[in-house]
């Protein structure tokens, strides 16, 4: 029987897989739009009037904020661990807990103010004028969406971090030294 934390982890993993797929589609869309812009501008002498707005308002924020939760959960983000590798396991677990709590506070602030900003843009019908008028609230909504998923992942990892400290610090958060060496040398 699954525990509640295993169920939460599975649900978050499924959502993160979806956001990773959407981020990959945003990456493909970026390449397609930029390629289409180059062909249109230099070969057809008819630049795409909407490409810059679509890329900056929707596609690039989607790429970053929808890719953020999956990269955090897979520990694919940049980590500087020169000092961490030399510390005892308990110290590492305590540092990870402090970092996680700080990150949770930061992401909670981003989610709170991001939701406020997106709702204000929605209520005021804020848009970017041009050949095509683009609403900006969907772009603003990507920020709290991606950050809320990271916050939830941090919250789901918190009990394991606390248990690790209670048991003397197993420091099982993140890849082991052997896993890092394997990835680096392959």
The poorly predicted ranges are 175-186
* Overall residue-averaged pLDDT value: 87
Shape: elongated
The percentage of residues in β strands lies in: under 5%
Question: What descriptors fit this protein?
Answer:
elongated, mainly alpha, 186 residues, two-stranded antiparallel sheet, disordered C terminus, 74% helix
Can you tell me about this structure?
With 186 residues, the chain is mainly alpha-helical. It has one domain. Helices cover 74% and strands 2% of the residues. The protein has helices at residues 4-43, 51-73, 89-123, 137-166, 177-185, and strands at 127-128, 134-135. The chain has a two-stranded antiparallel sheet with strand order 1-2. β1 and β2 (134-135) form a beta hairpin. It is elongated. The two termini are 37 Å apart. Mean pLDDT is 87; it is low at 175-186.
In short:
The protein is mainly α and 186 residues long.
